[in-house]
Amino acid sequence: MNRRKIILNLCTSLDFFIEGANGEIDWCFIDQDYSMTEFLGKIDTILFGRKSYEQLIELMPEGFPGKTRVVCSNNPDYAPQDVRVIRGDLKTEVASLIQESGLDIWLFGGSVLASAMLEEGLIDSLMISVHPLLLGKGKPLFPDLLSRVPLELTDCRTFSTGLVQLYYSVLHS
Fold this sequence. Notes:
Blueprint: E1 6-13, E2 17-19, H1 36-40, E3 43-49, H2 50-59, E4 68-72, E5 84-86, H3 90-99, E6 104-109, H4 111-119, E7 125-131, E8 139-140, E9 151-158, E10 164-170
Parallel strand pairs: 1-6, 1-7, 3-4, 3-6, 4-5
Antiparallel strand pairs: 2-8, 7-10, 9-10
């Protein structure tokens, strides 16, 4: 059995913020598909940090129907309905998750979880949708990344809106 891959897929401004100064994400384009139907066909599990999950449910209470939702949280009392919660050692828990049968896993966010997973070598690829605007301030893409992570560009897609999708493989040593 092949191990499942973890794909970080998120939106960023051209100055690499994933949220505005007040947590806003209203600048993310939703006027067309932007390869999401294709992407959603390749995954069956979505991995979230707690804050990212709560933001998603606030915006989209139905979440992504048919997808298993997994939330990383150290809060022992955190137990949302119909969600698997990962607690404890991130590397051990995610290593177990990727050994389960199924399609690939979408790492939805947030930035702290993404940084930690990159540090642990748990992310296989990145799909970054760069929006053609500068926010100036906000939440940076990888605020807690402590070391270099070599990447290889595998694809680049452009859209009529000026959005550019960058696809990278993480080069694990």
